[in-house]
Amino acid sequence: MEPITEPVDATVIERRIRIESDHDTVFKYWVEPARLIRWMGRSATLEAHVGGLFRVDYNGTDIVRGEFVEVDRPHRLVISWGWEAPGDSVPPGASRVEVTFVEESGGTVVTVRHLNLPDDSRASHAEGWDHFLPNLPGAVAAG
User: Fold this and answer.
1) What total of structural domains would you count in the chain?
2) Cα 73 to chain centroid, rounded
3) What DSSP assignment string belongs to 45-81?
4) Are 64 and 45 contacting, i.e. CB atoms less than 8 angstroms apart?
5) Residue 113: strand pairing partners
6) Which of 31, 63, 69, 93 fits a disulfide with 84 by CB distance 3.0 to 4.6 angstroms?
C-alpha cells in the first residue's frame, strides 16, 4: 500500500500508512534491530528506552543517530534524529521523528511526523520516508 501523504504544515513531513497487522507487532519493526533493517537500513543499534541510542546505518556512509525521547509501547515513539556526516545540516539529535500506531479495522495505521528540519533538507527527508515507509508493510507481512 502506498503511504498517504497529507501535508498539514509545510514545515512538517507527515506520512501515514496502513499495515495489516496489530500494533504490537508493527511497533517491534521500529524498536528491534533485526526487524527494522528488513525495511530500513543495513544495520541498527536500537536501545528502545528513554535516552537509549537510535542509530541506523543505511549504506556505510549515511548513518542516522539520535535517541529515544519517548517510548509508549505499542502506541507511540519519539526519536531525536540527525546524521553523523560532518557538516550535515541536520546533525545527530537536531530533528525529531514522532511515530504513532493506531489499531483500526484489524490493522494498524502508522503515522510518521518529522519535525525541526531545516528548509534545505526537508525535501530529501521526505524522499527518504517515501522510499522506506512503503517497505514496512511487506516486512511485517513476511514476519
Assistant:
1) 1
2) 15
3) EE--STT-EEEEESSSS-EEEEEEEEEETTTEEEEEE
4) no
5) 14, 98
6) 63
Q: How far apart are CA 14 and CA 97, in angstroms?
A: 10
* Nearest-angstrom CA–CA distance, 125 and 109: 21
| Cβ atoms 128, 112 nearer than 8 A | no
Give the number of other Cβ atoms within 10 Å of residue 93's Cβ: 16
pLDDT (tens digit, 9 = 90+) per residue, 106-142?
999 999 999 999 999 999 999 999 999 999 999 999 9
Which residue(s) pair with 115 in the sheet? Answer: 96
Grid cell 519519539 is found at 78
Mean pLDDT estimate for the chain? 93
Helix residue ranges, H only, 1-143? 23-31, 33-36, 119-132, 135-142
- CATH code, 106: 3.30.530.20
All three cell numbers of 88, joined, read: 550535515
